[in-house]
From TrEMBL:
E.C. number: 4.2.1.1
GO molecular function terms attached to this record: carbonate dehydratase activity; zinc ion binding
Enzyme category, top tier: lyase
Any one annotated GO CC term: cytoplasm
Organism field: Leeuwenhoekiella palythoae
Residues binding Zn(2+), per UniProt: 41, 43, 97, 100
The record's free-text note on cofactor binding: Binds 1 zinc ion per subunit.
Secretion signal span: none
Reaction(s) catalysed by this chain's protein: hydrogencarbonate + H(+) = CO2 + H2O
Protein name: Carbonic anhydrase 2
Annotated SUPFAM superfamilies: beta-carbonic anhydrase, cab
């Protein structure tokens, strides 16, 4: 792609927006009040706003390799804090996608250098669910299930944070686990039972005010 083309595209986009709504950028510059924090994968094939059918200002977005929420990652923790405490989002969504390169890499034993510490977080998910995953003989189906279980575990990591626990108690913040199916373009709600998860983990991870 010619990088100069991007600026041409930007000019066209600005004109389209202004033609439809002359005050569009004035309103956009006045601040943001998104209702959703979206934590997704950095994969170039997955555009968060586009797949949800929303526009600028509707979603606060954080993306990294394999949509991870490690408690030692200050980037992820800062995003959650800002979105939950200051923007007061109503929903936190962790969205993975089938055929995720990060998840695939974590299923292999290759030494990938700098990526190793990050992939270890994903491999820990495999270790936790090894018994369930080992029962799936078809590699493609096991890969897809691993993607789903990784989303579930990252949702658990979201719930472990103090900001989210307080918001759940005080204003009924909700957490969701989704998967984007690249083959069909459909968003899939994993319908994770967070009440059960909360009950199971709160004995250890509950953080009181």
């Amino acid at each position: 792609m010619d990088i100069k083309k991007i600026f041409e595209n930007n000019k066209e986009w600005v004109q389209e927006r202004l033609s439809a709504e002359p005050e569009y950028f004035k309103k956009l510059s006045q601040g943001q009040s998104p209702k959703i924090l979206y934590i997704g994968c950095s994969d170039s094939r997955v555009s968060s706003e586009e797949l949800m059918g929303v526009g600028p200002g509707d979603v606060f977005v954080h993306r990294n390799i394999a949509n991870m929420v490690p408690n030692t990652d200050l980037n992820s923790m800062s995003v959650i804090n800002y979105a939950v405490e200051h923007l007061e989002v109503e929903h936190v969504v962790v969205c993975g996608h089938y055929y995720c390169g990060g998840v695939k890499a974590a299923m292999q034993s290759s030494d990938l250098g700098l990526l190793n510490p990050w992939l270890r977080n994903i491999r820990d998910v495999y270790r936790i669910h090894k018994e369930e995953l080992s029962l799936i003989e078809d590699e493609d189906e096991r890969y897809k299930k691993f993607v789903e279980l990784n989303v579930q575990e990252q949702c658990v990591n979201v719930i472990k944070t103090a900001d989210v626990q307080k918001a759940i108690r005080k204003r009924n913040l909700s957490v969701h686990g989704w998967v984007f199916d690249i083959h069909s373009g459909k968003l899939i709600d994993l319908k994770i039972d967070f009440d059960a998860i909360l009950e199971n983990i709160m004995e250890i991870y509950r953080l009181d005010d």
